[in-house]
Automatic annotation (TrEMBL):
<keyword id="KW-0238">DNA-binding</keyword>
<dbReference type="GO" id="GO:0003677">
    <property type="term" value="F:DNA binding"/>
</dbReference>
<dbReference type="InterPro" id="IPR036271">
    <property type="entry name" value="Tet_transcr_reg_TetR-rel_C_sf"/>
</dbReference>
<dbReference type="Pfam" id="PF17937">
    <property type="entry name" value="TetR_C_28"/>
</dbReference>
<dbReference type="InterPro" id="IPR041479">
    <property type="entry name" value="TetR_CgmR_C"/>
</dbReference>
<dbReference type="InterPro" id="IPR001647">
    <property type="entry name" value="HTH_TetR"/>
</dbReference>
<dbReference type="Pfam" id="PF00440">
    <property type="entry name" value="TetR_N"/>
</dbReference>
<feature type="DNA-binding region" description="H-T-H motif">
    <location>
        <begin position="35"/>
        <end position="54"/>
    </location>
</feature>
<protein>
    <submittedName>
        <fullName>TetR/AcrR family transcriptional regulator</fullName>
    </submittedName>
</protein>
<feature type="domain" description="HTH tetR-type">
    <location>
        <begin position="12"/>
        <end position="72"/>
    </location>
</feature>
<dbReference type="InterPro" id="IPR009057">
    <property type="entry name" value="Homeodomain-like_sf"/>
</dbReference>
Amino acid sequence: MENPYKRKKDPEASKQLILNTAAEIGATADWHQVTFQAIADKTGLSKGGIIHHFRNKEELLEELVLQSLVELTEWIDEEKRTSGNDIAPIAFLRFVIKKSDDLHYRRTMKVILQAALINEHYKKMWDNWFTQHIAGGSLADLDTNTLIIMLVADGLWYADNLGVYNITTQKKQQILNKLLSL
């Protein structure tokens, strides 16, 4: 007979809970405040259980950034499909505007931004992802119009993630419409 008091283990669910909680703490505070103890307090998992999945905070951040970039790729690909426009910088700008009020998106992007700011390794990961998925190759070879769209998307992305300017979704849509009319 199975012990009714023994907790059933679901390692993937626990790992995802740890990642989600780390992202939540990191997005609302500062990545330096993400500790195994803070995650344990918020999830009810033991520190040992967290260490079972991630040997250290760096390994946790690496997994979180990789997962975030995969998710971002899926979001951008979906935006290209649904908008009918497969030009990646325009899809990225549309995506930034559409997702700017989505808390999960903002949390994901803030973690990527913080990681890139605190560690050159993550900055390179972001640059590689951006070059591959948005720029479509060398940034030096971009035409001026594409570069303008990318810089506007980046500006809105940074403003959202840093919590500055408080640009409304309606104003962002007007910016997009103006760019598309040029």
